[in-house]
Amino acid sequence: MTSFVNLVLVLCFSSIGVSAEKKSVFFIFGDSTVDPGNNNYIETIPENQANHKPYGQNGFFKDPTGRFSDGRIIVDFLAEYGKLPIIPPYLDPSADYSYGVNFASAGAGILSTTNEGQAIDLKTQLKYFEEVEKWLREKLGSSEAEEVISNAVYFISMGSNDYLGGYLGNPKMQELHLPEEYVGMVIGNLTSALQELYGKGARKFGFLSLSPLGCLPILRAMSPKGCFEEANSLALAHNNALKNVLTNLGYLFKDFKYCYSNFYNWLQQRIIYPSNYGFKEGVNACCGSGPYGGVYTCGGTKKVTTYELCDNANEHVWWDSFHPTERIHEQFAKALRMGPRTLRERILFEISSSTRRR
Ligand SMILES: *[C@@H]1O[C@H](CO)[C@@H](O)[C@H](O)[C@H]1NC(C)=O
């Protein structure tokens, strides 16, 4: 069992980077969990931009970058562990795509109807990937470009906005679709995206599962008691459906390799027992206002300009009302790199992979 799990991790995350036999580049799709600043270049609402203080206050990057964190985010650590440079935002005009590129956009959904017009949805992120594909072909020639594409790691962290703004915050959508139907639509569209990428030659995928959405400070603030259960149920249903889809794609598609990480349980442990993991505060956001710091402002809306800021973000699980601190990003990236070392961790991770046997 141990060797299987380690093999999978080597496959999924250690294969990013120059240390691997062949160079793997890193392509990232997603929402604010992994947006490195694409939204700095689009027209959107202030809530979807983090290119201002106190974001980035720990100074790893000299100025705020657009990351929804006090510093780095998980993909920065994964790139570092893979001996790659920081992977740039696609929309940055000075971006060099040689080691990969990041298409993620805060507020974005898998469904195009989610926060429509305020973020770069998954379909558009795939269109942008086609541009990078063209660029690779022109630069390297077709056969070398194909090799880069099939050796690359495709990391996807998306879906939270489909369930929060797209469903729970959208009465009309709730009238139209039962929760299970809606999960089916989200997963259906994600599956189409995976098939499209596979069709283009992508073979190695990494997934960050949804977190316990109902325990985000913003939703805790809306719930009379504890976490907002409907949001947690949707996240769990999505994660289960995603795992099933991945198992099936593993059977159906030759050489489809993936690693699915259970961020839900991992984060839940830190929310409930922060001190077991070196944190002091698992519930209240470092930056925000109102109950739990859950009112969505950390200097990000024009309506509310005041907010409170904690003394030490490293003691907090949550940075703002939606997003975890750099320390959480780093701990999870490390966990992915090291792999689950104990049986308990192994159960929490549920990392799995499948390659069609021939
Ligand atoms: C994708 O989402 C749309 C709604 O945005 C839905 O009508 C469609 O059926 C979904 N596609 C799949 C394959 O589930």
UniProtKB/TrEMBL annotation:
Short name of any one Pfam family annotated for the protein: Lipase_GDSL
Source organism superkingdom: Eukaryota
Listed GO MF terms: lipase activity
Keywords from the named record: Signal
Keyword Signal in annotation: yes
Signal peptide: 1-20
Keyword Chloroplast part of the UniProt annotation: no
Family: Belongs to the 'GDSL' lipolytic enzyme family.
Name of protein: GDSL esterase/lipase 5-like
Organism for this UniProt entry: Buddleja alternifolia
